[in-house]
Write a sequence for this structure.
C-alpha cells in the first residue's frame, strides 16, 4: 500500500505543478495580450495625431505660399502704408 500512496502523492504533486505552470502561462499570456491591445491603441492614436500634424503642416505651407504670392505679385510698396511697416 505504501508504494501506491507514494505514486499517488507523486502524481498529485506533478498535477499541482502542472496546474501552477498552466496558471502562470495563462496569466503571462493574458498580460501579454492586454499589453498588445494597449500598444495597438497607442499606435493608432499616434498615427491619427501624425496625420493631423501633417495636415496642419500642409495648411501652414499653403498659407505661406499664398502669403508669398500676395506679397510678391499683388502688393507693391505703394499699396502698403508706412504705418504697417
Amino acid at each position: 500500500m505504501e508504494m501506491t500512496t507514494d505514486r499517488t502523492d507523486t502524481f498529485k504533486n506533478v498535477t499541482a505543478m502542472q496546474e501552477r505552470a498552466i496558471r502562470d502561462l495563462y496569466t503571462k499570456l493574458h498580460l501579454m495580450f492586454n499589453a498588445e491591445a494597449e500598444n495597438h491603441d497607442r499606435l493608432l492614436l499616434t498615427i491619427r495625431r501624425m496625420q493631423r500634424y501633417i495636415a496642419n503642416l500642409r495648411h501652414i505651407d499653403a498659407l505661406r505660399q499664398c502669403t508669398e504670392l500676395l506679397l510678391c505679385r499683388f502688393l507693391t510698396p505703394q499699396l502698403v502704408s508706412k504705418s504697417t511697416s
